[in-house]
Amino acid sequence: MQTRQTYIISLGGSLIAPDGIDVKFLKQFKELIEKHAKESRFIIICGGGKTARRYQEAAAAVMQLTPEGKDWIGIHSTRLNGQLIKTIFKRIAYPKVIHDPTEKIKLKNKERIIVAAGWKPGASTDYDAVLLAKNFGVRTLINLTNVDYVYDKNPKKYSDAKPIRAIAWKSFRKIVGSKWDPGANVPFDPVASKLAEKLKLKVIIANGKNILNLDEILHGRRFIGTTVS
Length: 229
Fold this sequence. Notes:
It contains 8 helices and 9 strands. By secondary structure, the protein is an alpha/beta fold. It has a 7-stranded mixed β-sheet with strand order 3-2-1-4-8-9-7, with helices on both faces. The two termini are 24 Å apart. The relative contact order is 0.16.
């Protein structure tokens, strides 16, 4: 896998299924990734997004939901999204959705895409993405979400929130905190951030809905988004 440029993309569930499944986005994403997959390889790990939160809320309304139970609902939501993504890339994808980010994989030449999903309780897909980067020797991780930038404070609450284009891990971790909460809505999981800092990874956080912007990122050009390093 190291013979080609390899990209890890953490694909937010909010992009796959913001309410219903976003077919328009999936078509655009598929077209772009397949274009770049002629020269590169991709590891795409899927989040659970609103699908996970709706199931978690439903369970919590019926019974007292434990953190582990909440986590497992989220994990299976990511796996459903992962199966969808693997299916649309079937022609050039590894034949199964990867759950264990430490698993050693040998790809055939035609297999340009690995699709991954949630692993186990206590580990977000952001954390899994960092473990995948470590496993495959990838130094940059692209985290696609539904916002253009990381902000210095919540832009939904504060009108004076300012976008951040580049930030060091130490400062970024002050923004996201230190504890992982299943279903939490943060730009990058605090526990994953701690490990990414330790591994000296670069994480690009960008709005996945802007397909042309993702194209710029993959070409190594100027892009809209936040770089954490």
